[in-house]
Predict the structure of Thymidylate kinase.
Amino acid sequence: MTGRFISFEGGDGSGKTTQIRKLAERIRQAGGDVVVTREPGGTDLGLKIRQALLHGEDLSPRTEALLYSADRAHHMATVVRPALERSATVITDRFMDSSIAYQGGARGLGIDTITKLNRWAVEDLVPDMTILLDLDPVIGAQRVGAKKDRLESAGDAFHAEVRQTFLDLAAKEPDRFVVVDASRTPEEISADIGTAYDRLR
């Protein structure tokens, strides 16, 4: 595969949607082929899984982890790998680091356990670059507003653990992760991401 695979991670309200759109526009303006997708929900099956995960009945942590990894395996096989094989740049809103942070860290299922599960699900494909939009979860919750899904409603301690796990992952893989302060203006954040992308090329 010769395409570039870029993932965006971060807590709820960190601005991933805005920054993914800005980076995709930058690449398209330079003549690049870009596929923008998300997890869960990047496929028809993924939309059903997303509904169950975020808006359905209460789920046990193990059920939650397995549904995310099932979505990821299908997403890999039907969207991500085919795009990379035609040399497109794939930008995904969340990837396996989210499962490691949310289910492995905050849900207490274990970092190693969730890492192994998801590495198996994606056949060991790792992003070329992961943009971590780091933000105080209290600020993130304010940005999300009153209407929250299952994970957004999990509480301050949960989201503090998610943030810390993301930062720990970034510290372990500094060559892959780019940590960006998401408390600043969208323009400042986008400039940092653009610089990181230029280095990747």
Summary: Residues 4-200 form a domain with the Rossmann fold fold (CATH 3.40.50.300). Residues 61-85 form the longest helix (25 residues). The two ends are 15 Å apart (CA to CA).
